[in-house]
Specification:
Elements (H helix, E strand, L loop, with lengths): L1 E10 L2 E8 L5 E7 L3 H20 L9 E7 L2 E7 L5 H7 L7 H20 L2 E2 L8 E3 L4 E5 L5 H5 L4 E5 L4 E3 L6 E2 L16 H4 L7 H16 L9 H12 L4 H5 L9 E2 L2 E2 L8 H8 L14 H11 L10 H5 L2 H4 L7
Antiparallel strand pairs: 1-2, 2-3, 3-5, 4-5, 6-11, 7-10, 8-9, 12-13
Length: 335
């Protein structure tokens, strides 16, 4: 029997509770899913995926570990190991300060190891984002922040947090797809959604890789790369950061995306909904000029360009990305 200690979080699916397992004496996290059919179905998908992952990852290093599950008054309850805060929560509590590049490297390597492991099992996560990546430990240290911004001065935060350990695990497998399923519906949370998904071209493993690229940029800059809620603006932002979308992709767009293309190119800025929208796109920097602080910056940009290739068939696979010099630390070998 579990004793509820406090609420950890809440979402459309239900809530997550911090509980004490009276039998083992250990603290666990219990995801309580609302008794609505679509959320129950997603929860059962998640349980299947979690059990498959657990069977194939005995060490439990890559993905959150399921302990058990039960049905309580028509609510599916999944019992997990307790982990630390999400990358998003850590960023938010750190006043959206960028992570040090060595930490980005460590997180990137682990994230791609998890993605490679899932892809080997013919699974596509489809909802990778900072909220779904958790530090294993909640512990952090505070160090003086010499790069004070006007925002941090007004808020009186002269220190920044650094996690004591960079170990992470991926969570939330309720949207996970099997490779053999139909892949024409919309997946991914907006900011991390790949171009082939928006253009209605179908999707597969590479949509996870695109999300990883967006996440790494966010960890380096402190804010989401594509902050938008509208498809045409999103595609225009991609072109601003990464250059023009390939002709062959624009020619094959799905029915619902035809309105974003005119005469073989993106209907932008003509199709913009407002001048604010055009301004939001123009203020984005090109990927090549994003400034990073350390001698591996060139390698990081090169890795990001491989993860954020428009054409999913040309995008790096997780296994290829793991061999990249930015992640191996091998800066002396030419890539």
């Amino acid at each position: 029997m579990n004793k509820i200690l406090r609420k950890l979080g809440e979402g459309t699916f239900g809530q997550v509770l911090d509980c004490l397992d009276r039998e083992t004496g250990e603290t666990v996290a219990i995801k309580v899913v609302r008794s609505i059919k679509k959320y129950r179905d997603a929860a059962m998908t998640e349980i299947d995926v979690l059990q498959l992952l657990k069977k194939n990852d005995k060490s439990g290093r890559r993905c959150v570990q399921i302990r058990s599950w039960f049905d309580y008054r028509n609510h599916i309850c999944i019992v997990f190991e307790m982990l630390g805060p999400s990358l998003y929560d850590f960023l938010r509590k750190n006043n959206y300060r960028p992570f040090p590049v060595d930490l980005v490297r460590e997180i990137g390597r682990q994230l791609l190891e998890c993605v490679a492991f899932m892809h080997d099992l013919r699974l596509i996560h489809t909802d990778l984002k900072p909220e779904n990546i958790l530090f294993v430990s909640p512990e952090y240290i505070k160090i003086p922040d010499y790069k004070l911004t006007s925002r941090s001065i007004t808020e009186g935060t002269y220190y920044k947090r650094l996690p004591k350990s960079g170990a992470i695990k991926v969570i939330d497998f309720g949207s996970t797809a099997y490779e053999h399923q139909d892949h024409n519906y919309i997946v991914s949370t907006r900011h991390y959604r790949a171009p082939e998904v928006i253009l209605g071209l179908g999707w597969s493993y590479p949509c996870d890789i695109w999300s990883v690229g967006c996440i790494l940029v966010e960890l380096c800059s402190g804010e989401a790369l594509f902050q938008t809620h509208e498809n045409l603006e999103h595609l225009a932002m991609m072109e601003r950061v990464l250059g023009p979308l390939p002709q062959h992709m624009l020619k094959r767009v799905g029915k619902h995306a035809e309105k974003y293309v005119r005469r073989g190119r993106l209907d932008w800025p003509e199709g913009a909904t407002s001048r604010e929208s055009i301004k939001a796109v123009l203020k984005l920097p090109r990927l090549q000029v994003m400034q990073h602080v350390d001698h591996s910056a060139g390698y990081l940009i090169d890795l990001l360009q491989g993860l954020l290739r428009y054409d999913p068939s040309n995008r790096l696979t997780a296994r290829e990305a793991l061999r990249h010099p930015f992640l191996t630390g091998d800066y002396y070998r030419r890539f």
